[in-house]
Amino acid sequence: MDLRVHQPTEPNAPGSVFGTSGDPSPDSWLGLPSEQFDALAAGIGGTAESHSLRRVEHSWRLLNLVALGNLADARADAVPLEPLAEAWALLARAQQAAPDMVDAIVMWPQVGIWAAYTMRRLRNLVHHHAPLWADYGYLHALAAVAGIQAGLSFTIRVPIRYGSVVLPSLGYVKLDTDAECADAELSVVDGVVRLTHGVSTVELRGLADDGDRPQEAWHPLPRITARAHGATISLILNDSDTYRDLREPAAPNALPAEILSRWEALLDEAWRLLTEHHPHYAWAIGAGLVSITPLQAAQRFRPLSASADQGFGAILSSEPEDAAQMAVTLIHEFQHNKLGALLHLLDLYTDRPGLPRIYAPWRDDPRPFQGVLQGVYAFVGICDFWRVHRTLPDQDSDEARLAQFEFALWRDRVADTLRRLSQIEALTPRGKAFVGSLLARAQAWQQDSVPPGIAADASMAADDHYSLWLAYHRQPDPYLVEQIVKAWQARQPRPERIVAEDAIVEDDQDGRYIDARSALIRFRLADPATLAALAEQGEKHPNWVSGADPADVVLVSGDIDRARTMYLARLAEDGGDAKAWTGLALALRTTDPSAAETIRSAPDVLRAVYSRIPPADRPDPLRLVAWMGERSHAGH
User: Fold this and answer.
1) Average pLDDT for residues 242-257, to the nearest whole number?
2) Region label for 2, one of left (φ > 0), alpha (ψ between -120 and 50) or beta (otherwise)
3) Alpha-helix runs per DSSP H in 153-250
4) CA-to-CA distance for 130 and 137, rounded, in angstroms?
5) Of the N and C termini of the chain, which has fewer Cβ atoms inside 10 Å?
């Protein structure tokens, strides 16, 4: 079985860079052999799959550029730049001179992100204070780069953003201006690039052959390289492209040398880990990943990373804590890259309006099922990484304990999520096969043993996250809450039903940092000295975990009785405190598992009921929990 899509062309377009009209040649068809689909559906895929998906993305990218051009042509905004047709014409000249070079420029990841963002602006779906031409003027800069790389002589006007001219995939030129948005003339004669704004001119030499060499006012994109086991990876650290941020345009921000050195050292060790122990992921990443947009270091055990389906080959990542975190981040985000590209080729689901948002164990907020599918695909790779990595260090080491915890936590959560996704009717037959293949792989991991204590920690973290998610985002039925309150006040058994069958899920913005106790568990396993310092210094400690409470530190440190007392004191102050209710459930897991389960399964209802009872009549929370958990009880 070969799955194919036609290579998009723009027939008879004057100056088009997209091909010509007529019958498609075999080279204009994109195919995904069945064995490659099967590899991707298992969550793996290597070099061949990355090459196939890159071809898919090239086709998709061109299609988006055509759509962008059509939208922009329909807007008659007055602009200081040449008409778009002239930018297209320069791209076409460059393609004729150096087609492979232009293809590589078109596949610069930020081209896809820019095209998607600018189309949203053209459709008035997003807004920005900069004039619209400043966004679609990125095409002029793109054409200029193509012309420079192809060795052409030309003149074109390009946008100035935040005082700089960005040359996509190369770097940026800092001009003598504070203008947030303006234009400059870029001319090239015999390989010499001149940028003129007002009376100021910057001259650059050798960009086509030696663009990595810094010059006056020229800041090339830095590159980091690693070699291991006969394989080399070279990645751009994207610190300057206007569209490197997935949300909105950003100013260049050159990285200091010491940060570049740290990133290169981390990549060197992470690449060794990947090539030696995770070769399938390594080959896929090496064949498809182009750039990393570095973000500031995040809180410990809470790395930040992101990618976009329109930006194949690019990821954003906070500075990793160590090589293992960098390796797992590369796997995580390139999994998103792979699935995003696959979804541009195949329909794994049909769009059905009105589908509810559902639980994703790696997110604080309710997610659409399409987002959960993307997430679980990434976490299959994450879980696979920890499954192997836990066997590498000394088994008594902090690193091994943390890796065991990560594997145990995500193994069960991935399998549970895939089981839920497999029941969604919006999946196409191919989508069902895709999810089924992932589920089979996740279920096979259930046979792997995990130390009992760490398995208990993982179960506690998983239960806590889901319970907190319910407490914040599942909305209690007001009628049922009223009936429960009346039954309590009348000293009657509680009603049979306490949660509506069609309970509404809404994103409660207060429901953030619901992984705080999981982060504290990681401290206990991997850095117990810091956990002890957190217990002593509280929120004054520089590594304090956002969303945590002193009671959480006491709980995770093992003083269960004291933690229970502290959670009860918090509930006496605020009966709707979701984190106190769920913390109380954790404190009761061993001494009163029935009460713990009552809270865990309906924390949203408990906090609503408890808050509705008048303060003068409000009982000890444990009495209410006991009553809620025992319907046969005749009173209280």
Assistant:
1) 94
2) beta
3) 207-210
4) 12
5) N
Alpha carbon 412 to its chain centroid, in Å, reads 21
**How many other β-carbons are positioned within 10 Å of the β-carbon of residue 491?**
11
pLDDT at 16 > cutoff 90: no
**Is the pLDDT score of 584 beyond 60?**
yes
Euclidean distance between CA atoms 430 and 400, whole angstroms: 38
- Nearest CA among 117, 29, 24 for reference residue 345: 29
Of 280, 271, 270, which is closest to residue 40 (Cα–Cα)? 280
- For residues 369 and 426, the answer to whether their CB atoms sit within 8 Å is yes
Where helices occur in 491-592 by DSSP H, the ranges are: 516-526, 528-537, 550-557, 560-573, 578-587
Contact 242, 114 (CB under 8 A): yes
Determine the pLDDT at residue 630. 80
Contact 385, 331 (CB under 8 A): yes
Residue spans of beta strands (DSSP E) within 301-375: 305-306, 314-318
Which residue in 427, 431, 426 sits closest to 354, CA to CA? Answer: 426
Residue 7 has pLDDT above 50, yes or no: no
Distance of CA 599 to the CA centre of its chain: 31
Mode of pairing for the β-strands spanning 314-318 and 305-306? antiparallel
Q: Tell me the pLDDT tens digit for each residue of 424-478.
A: 999 999 999 999 999 999 999 999 999 999 999 999 999 999 999 999 999 999 9
Angle at 338 between CA 335 and CA 344, to 5 degrees: 140
Structure tokens at 614: 């008048």
Give me the helix-helix angle, 603-612 and 478-489, nearest 10°: 60
Q: d(Cα 139, Cα 158) in Å, to the nearest integer?
A: 9
pLDDT in tens, 196-218: 998 889 999 988 776 677 788 99
With residue 182 as reference, give the H or E element that holds it. strand 181-189
End-to-end CA separation in angstroms for the chain? 66
Residue 77's pLDDT band (boundaries 50, 70, 90)?
A: low
Is the model's pLDDT at 377 over the cut of 70?
Answer: yes
d(CA 343, CA 490): 56
> Pairing state of beta strands 291-295 and 192-197?
unpaired
Neighbouring CB atoms inside 10 A of 72's CB total 22
Long-range Cβ contacts of 595-600 (<8 Å, 24+ apart): 595/622, 595/625, 595/626, 595/629, 597/629, 598/625, 598/628, 598/629, 599/467, 599/625, 600/463, 600/466, 600/467
Judge contact between 157 and 187, C-beta under 8 A.
Answer: no
The rounded distance, in Å, linking the Cα atoms of 416 and 421 is: 9
Do 107 and 236 form a contact (C-beta atoms < 8 A)? no
CB contact at 8 A, 431 and 348: yes
Q: Please report, to the nearest 10 degrees, the dihedral formed by the alpha carbons of residues 140, 142, 148, 153 taken in order.
A: -20
